[in-house]
Amino acid sequence: MFVIDDTALMALIREDVPAGDLTTRSLGIATDAGEITMRARAPMTVACSEEAVRIFQLLGAEAWIACPSGKRVEEGEMLLFGRGQAEALHAGWKVAQTLMEWASGVASCASDILSAAQAVNPAISVACTRKSVPGTRALSLKAITAAGATIHRAGLSDTVLLFAEHRVFGGEDALATQIALLRQSCPERRVVVEVSSRDEALAAAKAGAEVLQLEKFPPAEVAATVAALGPDWPGKVAAAGGINAKNAADYAATGAHVLVTSAPYTAPPRDVKVHIGMA
Which of 66, 135, 185, 226 has the highest local Cβ count within 10 Å? Predict the structure, then answer.
Protein backbone atom coordinates (compact mmCIF):
# COMPACT_ATOMS: atom_id res chain seq x y z
CA MET A 1 0.00 0.00 0.00
CA PHE A 2 1.29 3.46 -0.88
CA VAL A 3 1.84 5.83 2.04
CA ILE A 4 1.35 9.54 1.34
CA ASP A 5 3.32 11.38 4.01
CA ASP A 6 2.15 14.21 6.21
CA THR A 7 4.25 16.77 4.36
CA ALA A 8 2.34 16.12 1.15
CA LEU A 9 -1.00 16.22 2.95
CA MET A 10 -0.12 19.45 4.74
CA ALA A 11 0.68 21.00 1.35
CA LEU A 12 -2.86 20.16 0.23
CA ILE A 13 -4.29 21.72 3.39
CA ARG A 14 -2.19 24.89 3.07
CA GLU A 15 -3.27 25.30 -0.55
CA ASP A 16 -6.93 25.51 0.51
CA VAL A 17 -6.54 27.04 3.99
CA PRO A 18 -3.52 29.35 3.85
CA ALA A 19 -4.59 31.44 6.87
CA GLY A 20 -7.44 29.57 8.56
CA ASP A 21 -11.15 29.39 7.72
CA LEU A 22 -12.30 33.03 7.56
CA THR A 23 -16.04 32.29 7.51
CA THR A 24 -16.03 29.86 10.44
CA ARG A 25 -13.77 32.11 12.49
CA SER A 26 -15.84 35.24 11.74
CA LEU A 27 -19.06 33.49 12.81
CA GLY A 28 -17.54 32.77 16.21
CA ILE A 29 -18.17 29.01 15.94
CA ALA A 30 -14.56 27.88 15.44
CA THR A 31 -14.34 26.04 18.77
CA ASP A 32 -17.84 24.55 18.72
CA ALA A 33 -17.90 20.74 18.78
CA GLY A 34 -19.09 19.06 15.59
CA GLU A 35 -19.18 15.82 13.65
CA ILE A 36 -18.65 15.03 9.97
CA THR A 37 -19.58 12.02 7.86
CA MET A 38 -18.71 11.24 4.27
CA ARG A 39 -20.75 8.75 2.25
CA ALA A 40 -20.75 7.47 -1.32
CA ARG A 41 -23.44 9.07 -3.48
CA ALA A 42 -23.20 6.19 -5.98
CA PRO A 43 -21.37 2.87 -6.37
CA MET A 44 -17.60 3.30 -6.48
CA THR A 45 -14.25 1.77 -5.70
CA VAL A 46 -12.89 3.77 -2.78
CA ALA A 47 -9.42 5.29 -2.83
CA CYS A 48 -7.48 7.54 -0.46
CA SER A 49 -9.89 7.30 2.48
CA GLU A 50 -6.78 6.85 4.65
CA GLU A 51 -5.38 10.18 3.47
CA ALA A 52 -8.76 11.86 3.97
CA VAL A 53 -8.86 10.68 7.57
CA ARG A 54 -5.28 11.82 8.13
CA ILE A 55 -6.14 15.31 6.85
CA PHE A 56 -8.66 15.75 9.68
CA GLN A 57 -6.21 14.35 12.20
CA LEU A 58 -3.53 16.82 11.10
CA LEU A 59 -6.01 19.62 11.72
CA GLY A 60 -6.62 18.45 15.28
CA ALA A 61 -9.86 16.49 14.83
CA GLU A 62 -10.48 12.81 15.47
CA ALA A 63 -11.36 10.72 12.42
CA TRP A 64 -11.91 7.06 11.55
CA ILE A 65 -11.98 5.08 8.33
CA ALA A 66 -15.24 3.31 7.57
CA CYS A 67 -14.16 1.97 4.13
CA PRO A 68 -10.50 1.36 3.24
CA SER A 69 -9.01 2.00 -0.18
CA GLY A 70 -9.88 -0.73 -2.66
CA LYS A 71 -13.31 -1.55 -1.25
CA ARG A 72 -16.25 -1.51 -3.65
CA VAL A 73 -19.16 0.32 -2.02
CA GLU A 74 -22.78 1.04 -2.85
CA GLU A 75 -24.74 4.28 -2.66
CA GLY A 76 -25.06 5.62 0.88
CA GLU A 77 -22.23 3.61 2.40
CA MET A 78 -20.17 5.53 4.96
CA LEU A 79 -16.56 6.23 4.00
CA LEU A 80 -15.32 8.07 7.10
CA PHE A 81 -16.46 9.68 10.34
CA GLY A 82 -14.87 12.58 12.20
CA ARG A 83 -15.35 14.59 15.35
CA GLY A 84 -13.75 17.83 16.53
CA GLN A 85 -13.93 21.60 16.58
CA ALA A 86 -15.91 23.25 13.79
CA GLU A 87 -12.87 25.07 12.39
CA ALA A 88 -10.93 21.81 12.00
CA LEU A 89 -13.88 20.06 10.35
CA HIS A 90 -14.51 22.92 7.92
CA ALA A 91 -10.80 23.28 7.12
CA GLY A 92 -10.52 19.60 6.22
CA TRP A 93 -13.91 19.22 4.56
CA LYS A 94 -13.25 20.14 0.92
CA VAL A 95 -9.64 18.97 0.88
CA ALA A 96 -10.58 15.49 2.08
CA GLN A 97 -13.77 15.30 0.01
CA THR A 98 -12.11 16.41 -3.23
CA LEU A 99 -9.18 14.04 -2.72
CA MET A 100 -11.46 11.05 -2.16
CA GLU A 101 -13.75 11.98 -5.05
CA TRP A 102 -10.88 12.33 -7.51
CA ALA A 103 -8.95 9.25 -6.32
CA SER A 104 -12.10 7.12 -6.23
CA GLY A 105 -12.83 8.18 -9.81
CA VAL A 106 -9.38 6.92 -10.83
CA ALA A 107 -9.83 3.69 -8.87
CA SER A 108 -13.35 3.06 -10.14
CA CYS A 109 -12.29 3.48 -13.77
CA ALA A 110 -9.33 1.12 -13.30
CA SER A 111 -11.63 -1.39 -11.61
CA ASP A 112 -14.13 -1.19 -14.48
CA ILE A 113 -11.42 -1.83 -17.07
CA LEU A 114 -10.03 -4.76 -15.09
CA SER A 115 -13.47 -6.30 -14.55
CA ALA A 116 -14.35 -6.05 -18.25
CA ALA A 117 -11.04 -7.61 -19.28
CA GLN A 118 -11.01 -10.41 -16.72
CA ALA A 119 -14.59 -11.39 -17.55
CA VAL A 120 -13.11 -12.58 -20.86
CA ASN A 121 -9.62 -13.62 -19.71
CA PRO A 122 -9.22 -14.06 -15.94
CA ALA A 123 -5.43 -14.23 -16.27
CA ILE A 124 -4.99 -10.87 -17.98
CA SER A 125 -3.47 -7.87 -16.19
CA VAL A 126 -4.28 -4.19 -16.56
CA ALA A 127 -1.26 -1.92 -16.16
CA CYS A 128 -1.59 1.85 -15.82
CA THR A 129 1.08 4.11 -17.28
CA ARG A 130 3.01 6.95 -15.69
CA LYS A 131 0.91 9.53 -17.57
CA SER A 132 -0.89 10.80 -14.49
CA VAL A 133 -1.54 14.50 -13.93
CA PRO A 134 1.83 16.03 -12.95
CA GLY A 135 2.22 16.18 -9.18
CA THR A 136 -0.31 13.41 -8.51
CA ARG A 137 1.70 10.30 -9.34
CA ALA A 138 1.89 8.75 -5.86
CA LEU A 139 -1.83 9.28 -5.25
CA SER A 140 -2.68 8.05 -8.77
CA LEU A 141 -0.63 4.89 -8.36
CA LYS A 142 -2.23 4.25 -4.98
CA ALA A 143 -5.67 4.58 -6.58
CA ILE A 144 -5.01 2.22 -9.48
CA THR A 145 -3.34 -0.44 -7.33
CA ALA A 146 -6.19 -0.23 -4.81
CA ALA A 147 -8.46 -1.16 -7.72
CA GLY A 148 -6.36 -4.22 -8.58
CA ALA A 149 -4.48 -2.78 -11.57
CA THR A 150 -0.69 -2.89 -11.75
CA ILE A 151 1.92 -0.21 -12.40
CA HIS A 152 3.22 -0.22 -15.96
CA ARG A 153 6.25 1.80 -14.88
CA ALA A 154 6.53 4.28 -12.04
CA GLY A 155 9.17 6.28 -13.92
CA LEU A 156 12.03 6.12 -16.37
CA SER A 157 14.31 4.53 -13.77
CA ASP A 158 11.88 1.68 -13.21
CA THR A 159 11.89 -0.49 -16.34
CA VAL A 160 13.64 -0.97 -19.67
CA LEU A 161 11.33 0.16 -22.47
CA LEU A 162 12.79 0.66 -25.94
CA PHE A 163 10.86 3.19 -28.04
CA ALA A 164 11.23 4.12 -31.68
CA GLU A 165 12.43 7.45 -30.31
CA HIS A 166 15.46 5.60 -28.90
CA ARG A 167 16.06 3.71 -32.12
CA VAL A 168 16.44 6.89 -34.20
CA PHE A 169 19.80 7.34 -32.49
CA GLY A 170 20.98 3.83 -33.31
CA GLY A 171 21.36 3.74 -37.07
CA GLU A 172 19.95 1.34 -39.63
CA ASP A 173 20.23 -1.81 -37.48
CA ALA A 174 19.13 -0.12 -34.26
CA LEU A 175 16.38 -2.58 -33.34
CA ALA A 176 18.52 -5.72 -33.05
CA THR A 177 21.63 -3.87 -31.87
CA GLN A 178 19.90 -1.96 -29.10
CA ILE A 179 17.93 -4.98 -27.87
CA ALA A 180 21.20 -6.92 -27.60
CA LEU A 181 22.84 -4.03 -25.74
CA LEU A 182 19.94 -3.72 -23.29
CA ARG A 183 19.93 -7.46 -22.59
CA GLN A 184 23.66 -7.30 -21.87
CA SER A 185 23.55 -4.08 -19.84
CA CYS A 186 20.41 -4.86 -17.82
CA PRO A 187 20.40 -8.66 -17.44
CA GLU A 188 18.06 -8.57 -14.43
CA ARG A 189 15.38 -6.60 -16.35
CA ARG A 190 12.97 -7.68 -19.03
CA VAL A 191 13.52 -5.83 -22.29
CA VAL A 192 10.23 -4.30 -23.41
CA VAL A 193 10.01 -2.99 -26.98
CA GLU A 194 7.24 -0.75 -28.26
CA VAL A 195 6.33 -1.57 -31.86
CA SER A 196 3.92 -0.04 -34.35
CA SER A 197 3.40 -2.90 -36.83
CA ARG A 198 3.17 -6.67 -36.95
CA ASP A 199 6.40 -6.94 -38.95
CA GLU A 200 8.21 -4.80 -36.40
CA ALA A 201 6.83 -6.98 -33.57
CA LEU A 202 8.11 -10.16 -35.23
CA ALA A 203 11.51 -8.60 -35.85
CA ALA A 204 11.77 -7.48 -32.22
CA ALA A 205 10.77 -10.92 -30.96
CA LYS A 206 13.40 -12.54 -33.18
CA ALA A 207 16.01 -10.08 -31.85
CA GLY A 208 15.34 -11.06 -28.25
CA ALA A 209 12.63 -8.73 -26.96
CA GLU A 210 10.96 -10.28 -23.93
CA VAL A 211 7.82 -8.12 -23.97
CA LEU A 212 6.26 -6.56 -27.05
CA GLN A 213 4.18 -3.45 -26.47
CA LEU A 214 1.80 -3.12 -29.42
CA GLU A 215 1.09 0.59 -29.73
CA LYS A 216 -2.42 1.51 -30.90
CA PHE A 217 -3.06 -1.83 -32.62
CA PRO A 218 -6.79 -2.52 -33.11
CA PRO A 219 -7.95 -5.75 -31.43
CA ALA A 220 -7.94 -7.76 -34.67
CA GLU A 221 -4.32 -6.80 -35.34
CA VAL A 222 -3.29 -7.68 -31.78
CA ALA A 223 -4.85 -11.13 -32.29
CA ALA A 224 -3.11 -11.53 -35.64
CA THR A 225 0.25 -10.59 -34.11
CA VAL A 226 -0.21 -13.03 -31.23
CA ALA A 227 -1.04 -15.76 -33.76
CA ALA A 228 2.00 -14.89 -35.89
CA LEU A 229 4.30 -15.10 -32.86
CA GLY A 230 2.99 -18.61 -32.23
CA PRO A 231 2.37 -20.56 -29.03
CA ASP A 232 6.05 -21.36 -28.49
CA TRP A 233 7.27 -17.77 -28.28
CA PRO A 234 8.25 -17.35 -24.60
CA GLY A 235 7.61 -13.63 -24.28
CA LYS A 236 4.60 -11.52 -23.36
CA VAL A 237 2.37 -9.25 -25.42
CA ALA A 238 1.06 -5.95 -24.05
CA ALA A 239 -1.65 -4.07 -25.93
CA ALA A 240 -1.41 -0.31 -25.40
CA GLY A 241 -3.14 2.84 -26.56
CA GLY A 242 -6.80 3.81 -26.36
CA ILE A 243 -7.85 0.99 -24.03
CA ASN A 244 -10.85 1.69 -21.80
CA ALA A 245 -13.75 -0.10 -20.13
CA LYS A 246 -15.75 -0.18 -23.37
CA ASN A 247 -13.13 -2.03 -25.44
CA ALA A 248 -11.19 -3.90 -22.75
CA ALA A 249 -13.14 -7.11 -23.36
CA ASP A 250 -12.29 -7.04 -27.09
CA TYR A 251 -8.59 -6.60 -26.30
CA ALA A 252 -8.70 -9.31 -23.62
CA ALA A 253 -9.96 -11.78 -26.21
CA THR A 254 -6.91 -11.29 -28.46
CA GLY A 255 -4.44 -13.38 -26.48
CA ALA A 256 -2.55 -10.37 -25.10
CA HIS A 257 -1.18 -10.84 -21.60
CA VAL A 258 -1.38 -7.20 -20.44
CA LEU A 259 -3.56 -4.21 -21.28
CA VAL A 260 -1.72 -0.91 -20.86
CA THR A 261 -3.85 2.17 -20.28
CA SER A 262 -3.84 5.77 -19.08
CA ALA A 263 -7.64 6.10 -19.10
CA PRO A 264 -8.15 6.07 -15.29
CA TYR A 265 -6.21 9.31 -14.87
CA THR A 266 -8.82 11.30 -16.76
CA ALA A 267 -11.87 9.58 -15.24
CA PRO A 268 -14.66 11.72 -13.77
CA PRO A 269 -14.59 12.01 -9.96
CA ARG A 270 -17.06 9.94 -7.94
CA ASP A 271 -19.39 11.99 -5.76
CA VAL A 272 -18.97 11.91 -1.99
CA LYS A 273 -21.81 13.26 0.18
CA VAL A 274 -20.75 15.25 3.24
CA HIS A 275 -22.80 16.01 6.37
CA ILE A 276 -21.54 18.29 9.15
CA GLY A 277 -23.55 18.73 12.32
CA MET A 278 -23.22 19.72 15.96
CA ALA A 279 -21.83 17.08 18.26
Answer: 226
Q: What angle do CA 238, 244, 248 make, to 5 degrees?
A: 60
Q: What letter does residue 195 receive in the DSSP assignment? A: E
The two beta strands, 33-40 and 258-261, are: unpaired
Identity of the residue numbered 83: R
Backbone angles phi, psi at 212, to 5 degrees: -105, 125
**214 bridge partner residues:** 195, 239
For the stretch 30-66, pLDDT in tens is 999 999 999 999 999 999 999 999 999 999 999 999 9
Instruction: Considering only CA atoms, give the Rg of the chain.
Output: 23
Mean pLDDT per block of 10 residues along the chain (279 residues) reads 87 96 96 98 98 98 98 98 98 98 98 98 98 94 97 94 95 90 95 97 97 98 98 97 97 98 98 97
32 contacts 21 by C-beta, under 8 angstroms: no
Is there a shared CATH topology between the 6-112+267-278 domain and the 114-266 domain? no
Task: Please state whether beta strands 272-278 and 258-261 pair in parallel, antiparallel, or not at all (unpaired).
Answer: unpaired
CATH class of 6-112+267-278: alpha beta
- Give this prediction's pTM: 0.95
CATH homologous superfamily for 114-266?
Aldolase class I (3.20.20.70)
Per domain, the residue ranges of the chain are 6-112+267-278, 114-266
